[in-house]
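HUMAN:
Just now I want nothing more than another pair of eyes on a protein record. I would be glad if you read both lines and explained how they fit together. I have put the entry right below:
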Amino acid sequence: MKKLNTLIEDIYKELDGLSNGKALDISEKDAEEFGNAMKDILLQWATPYERKKETLRMSNVGKPNRQLWYDFKSKDEPLPMKPSTQIKFLYGHILEEVVLMLVRLAGHKVEGEQKEVKVSGVLGHMDCIIDGEVIDVKSASGFAFQKFRNGTLPEDDPFGYMAQLSGYEASEGTNNGGFLAINKETGELSLLIPAEMDKPNIKHRIAKLKRELKLDNPPSLCYNPISDGKAGNMKLPKQCVYCRHKFTCHKDSNNGQGLRVFKYAKNLAFFTTVVKQPRVEEVTNEWQKS
């Protein structure tokens, strides 16, 4: 049985053979199973997601407490998903299935795909188990991929991947799993096995979340505003910019006016404090109407 620590090396070795004129050992059965997996992905993607009442799931227990509180309590509706985002989700799912095909091709054991798990009453579905360890497969942009390759994910984990992994491992009774990531831009692969000390205690995490979600007032800010220049202006950090609750969450900013939005050449900036007016167009009214 092959070991997890040689996974990337083994996959690359198989593909080196293809580059050198050696055919890959893919049977008709393997090809048919891969085709069926592609079919399932396409049909699932093409079916609209029915939004139900917000519940704790293994996929969201790692999100910041305040963001989850607003998910449960707020009436803020998510913005409609852009067509380009729908396409991104489709090829992300496809790439993740491609990665698992390569794992099998390299002689490693894949099992437990989409296995249902339950920890402290919270349900989830793991990606898979490879060589006896829980593995979450991720397709990532070139920028996000660096977190997996450089091992910095534990310090910058806005989507709660570490808590998700901890939950799956708690269910399986294992502790040496991690993340198998593919760079969507280059095809490069990386395997990140986090240190045990970097993983949250998932049972304690779930217990704390259950308590805070019952509170009448939201928990403390997920991320503090950051400085913009030397005049005293403060704006939302990148982790908050894409949150659908940002206007509600920061409604008391700017002395009760709420967030002010300014349009820069490459992006929008959401200011919590404006001491000196930025020299770009303010589009706050447009955002408040949308």
About this structure: The longest strand covers residues 133-140. The radius of gyration is 22 Å.
